[in-house]
Structure prediction request, 1064 residues.
Amino acid sequence: MQFLSYLISGLGLGSVYAIMALGYSMVYGIAKMLNFAHGDIIMVGAYVAFFAISGAGMPPAVAILLSILACTVLGVVIERLAYKPLREASSLAVLITAIGVSYFLENGALILWGADSKFFPSNIFPQGGLTVGSLTISWLTIITIAVCCIIMILLMLFVGRTNTGRAMRACSEDKGAATLMGINVNAIISLTFAIGSGLAAVAAVLLASTYPSISPTLGAMPGIKAFTAAVLGGIGSIPGAFLGGLLLGVIENLSKAYISQQLSDAIVFGVLVVILLIKPAGLLGRKVSEKV
Amino acid sequence: MKRKLNVNRNSAVSYSIVIALYIALSIMSASGLLGRKYSSLLVPVCCYIVAAIGLNMNVGISGELNLGQAGFMSLGAFTAVIVAGALNFHGITAPALVLLICIICGTLVAGFLGWLMSIPVLKLEGDYLAIVTLAFGQIIVNIINNVYLGIDENGLHFSFVNNTLQMQPDGSVLISGPMGATGVKTASNFTAGFLLVLISLIVVYHIMYSRNGRAIMACRDNRIAASTVGINAVAEKTLAFVVSAALGGAAGALYGMNYSSFAATKFDFNLSILILVYVVLGGLGNMTGTIIATTLLVVLPEMLRFLSIYRMLIYAVVLIVIMIVTNNQAIRMKLKALRKGKAGNGSGKGASVNG
Amino acid sequence: MKNKFLRLGVIAALCGAMTACGSSAGTSSTSAASASGSDTAVASGSVSGTTTTASGEAFKLGASGPLSGDASVYGIAVKNAAELAIGEINKKGGVQFELNFQDDQADTEAAVNAYNTLADWGMQLSLLTVTSGSGQSVAPLYKEDNIFGITPSGSSTAVIFQDAENNTNPYGNVFQMCFTDPNQGKASADYLSEHTDLGTKVGIIYRNDDNYSTGIYNTFVEEAKAKNLDVVSTGTFTKGATDFSVQIKQAQDAGADIVFLPIYYQPASLVLQAAKNAGYAPTFFGCDGMDGILTQDNFDTSLAEGLYMLTPFSADAQDEKTQNFVKAYKDKYGETPNQFAADAYDAVNALAQALGNSDVTPKSSTDDITAALIKQFTTMKFQGITAPGDITWNENGEVSKEPRAIVIKDGAYVSAE
Prediction:
């Protein structure tokens, strides 16, 4: 019984990682870049929703839409200004630029909104939880997992079934060939960033509702964990990100509960190393054979 | 023959820049021109240069992204503290000797653990390899954070997670969990830092221009093609990884002996990233560039102090602008055209081996 | 390969440009924020450059703390309160101060750089650092240069003792305005053993990569054992943790009726939320780091209902001094001051009192100033806002003052028994 309840709280944590990992994986799959600023876009999304609800008194639904809009715009602007000029550059150069963007957002938030943490309103989602026997699963966990599943399915349908999605996959396989087929690669990459950043806003609202103390560095640590989750599941793979996130959350909680809390980080990353040794491209990743 | 000539010129540039900088800065520091603030930056700059040169060996020459260099630095730093503590306890206090022994031990420990880690790490490729180095960096920080270690007349005392050292009153605690290393007798100085930079350059250049170095670069450019001509890719990459880790350890030892106290959390993911930024800005495989970029980027935040809270924001903007300006094809072409109009030749000497 | 030279050229050019503006703006920044009371909350320090005091008339007071990064909330509080106090003191006439507050990002290396910047500036006395880790790394430098320092909030024993393990061999010229961590741990255990009506089974959640938190935890456990308090569960977490469901569950399963939280209020608010989610309502008990929990923007105060804490300062205290300070701080910065601000305010006022009672002037040598301050601090009695009664210091630099026990009722601080 105890084990089950740890497992469920692990799923709650994992679902937050999963929804963040979806954004990482999506951008990586198409643009082939590690967008280290993703965690900070989530932070911005949380602040926008916070100010919309407790500052301007908007109803939660409007606030969430506003947050999605703000993050989408922010994502596209960042992509245009910082990443697009580096389309031909090495992936390392883009990585460093992404880190620069991450520093910029964090410090900008610090100056704009102050270092003191703010408390995210708890009225967006229903309180309490579903009780089965002596187990209680909070509604928030259920909603997070459900939202995560819905987003994953929608993304898979979008990427798999629509023309735009096909264009995305084409870009992901071979940008040159995609261009030859008349696909506007730049537009597709911008669209990817728009979707990824919009997802970040959804993740932000769920993250901030689960862990309501928000500060300018809120995206940093979950960002690293979500990135780890995305790699664990096989980076670029949408169901992989979902699976990796849930798994990471569960491993983290079980190791805290049964092995050692002091060493939980070491254990989580140790498990990651072991899994990657067994499955070198992550759980659901594709092993790309090298061209000679 | 031509290549050989090129090689010598390339490393000669590095050596002469380092020596010239050392002489100039020593004079400026001694005459008080630098002030305490910039004088105190000399040793950390040397530490970061050595760590960055090591990382460049891995990222630039071997072509494997490593996000855990700070972990190796912390191994070196904490080894140095333990060794220095033991030496001091047994009455050996001559700073130069202590520092030398500490750096050697730090290098060996980090190199050895680097070798152990390279076994799983090098089975992977690309971003998966990068994330595993990140994971090891986190694991090292997490573990050292829980180490308590002290020395007294009964020898070394060690405890993990909880502090149960039970020391004799004459003993001293060297590492105290989250407080990190405390009460270190500092022994680093600029000359030692300079020598360490010089030695690491010699080591790295020696490898780069040897048969091994060419093999490492061949694996980087095309692993399969390299394997077909009989190069043992894993062995070559292991060499680069271990040298990189060992230099990280040496840098950490120098760092550890420069501050009276520091904690394991200092060597976190952010520091790894910072060193990576030095390497990428300096140019992959370009050691001279690494030295200059590291120096400028360590000094930059200090120069920006007058900006108060806007400091890190401006730093971020500077970083992004530099990356775009130096990596964007269109901007580069324009600048190239501009320069061609002005001067014809004279920029060929940067033709380094990394191609 | 031109690009590499180009790259370096760009860096060099940018750096050059930065220094160019740096040297012009930098000179005025050092003397900023001395007497001008019109600075705005965050932008002060660097931009306002009114030099009202010529050198030689005011004591050069140095300080460093995190003004950027995730610990900046503490650094900014200390800086604000120090500026407030100095503004008041300078207006009165008598002892005059000139403050130079450097950013150290709560990082040991940056703290050493900040110290050297201050030394170049000609610092005569100091508020040391805001955080313990930084304080630990610069205290030997203060000793070496024999400059007097009093830290408002660096509460680790390693800030004032060279041998922190045995609490021996104090620096002698480094003092603390706040309680040491071990003192807080001991006081908390004592309080709980005297108030067994709150409960006897104690669960603890602390941050094990933080020396403030582990410092309190270690002595608390020792003292709890001596006082027959039953510690039934211990949970830990590390920097940046957000999920506390496991720690709360363990305390709940172990039947803890008190949960001791020797941590700062930001993670604490997440712990409280996690407890609420789990339907667990023990008595929560915190130390001075807990202060500030109610002033979090939009905080759901019902979460903290019934929370106890031992803290030297509460912004709701009714005495005149506290009320004046809170009002002045709110007027100037638009926020309620926390205990970091209060400790900084007291530290500056204590320095002013000590200097006023001695015969040193800003023209005296640093050695004389240090000697005079040590003499004053070890003999004087100071009345401030971080203790109800007299505050005194011993030769080790440790402060002695009465902590207040506070409980949160109906979303406000109330004095507990």
